[in-house]
Amino acid sequence: MTAVTLSLKTTLRQRLDVSPLMPDNLAGRDPAEIAAIALHYGNRTEPVGHFFDIRITPDGDGLTFSPGDARFDYLGRGMAAGSIRVAGDAGAYVGYQMRGGTISVDGDVGIYCGAEMKSGEVHVRGNAGDFVGGALPGNRKGMAGGCLFIEGSAGDRVGDHMRRGLIVIEGDAGAYAGSRMIAGTIAIKGRLGPYPGYAMKRGTLVLAQAPAMLPATFNDCGTHTLGFLSLLFRSPVLHGRAFADFARRPPRVRRYAGDHASLGKGEILVLLPDP
After folding, report:
1. Residue 122 belongs to a domain with what CATH number?
2. pTM of the model
3. Which end of the chain is less crowded, N or C, counting CB atoms within 10 A of the terminal residue's CB?
4. Which DSSP letter does residue 274 get?
């Protein structure tokens, strides 16, 4: 196994499509072959060597961008295996249509992080833009599997059209979280914007803080102790992050069912403080 490190050596003035740069696509290539790969840059194409210094380490594994840049778009698009790490920020569409492997971003990412992903794991240590785990305009299938962790805050429409998988937001989230959900789980530890669960058919929103408002199309179902939340919070997939403090006590929640303007089989679970 070999590790590839791409060190940015120029200042980007346009968006750079880095989707061809994935571990399985670079495996077995020498630096000269990697340097010749064409990347879309604004309205033209340039070779990888125009933007990056390339280092290959024989005893390592995975692909590293060091430093990152907020103009790196489509990082890990359609990725099926391997690992990518970004030592800094990344742009829009991180993990778009991802099918496996892991992506780790040390900084912030743009819009549509994890959009339409089917499997794998994306871990962002900073903030994310709108439509985390969502669907692109005109599409009706958002995130359909895998795990997506945002340590910072996220924008509007988290999990829009989500069909399966897990999204965890450790910070705040914007408006319309869980909009048009079909299934899956979204857990948000921070504050939440208005209209959560808008037009959701099924699925679960787990909130550590009560939202400022709930749509009138959700019914208050009272308080419950739900054992599956204990399993979720203790699950290795969470790596002890975010909701670990709730795993130490019975998961008592206030449950709201809806959206009754849609199919109405979704739920919003608000975690209650210790009695």
Report:
1. 2.160.20.60
2. 0.94
3. C
4. P
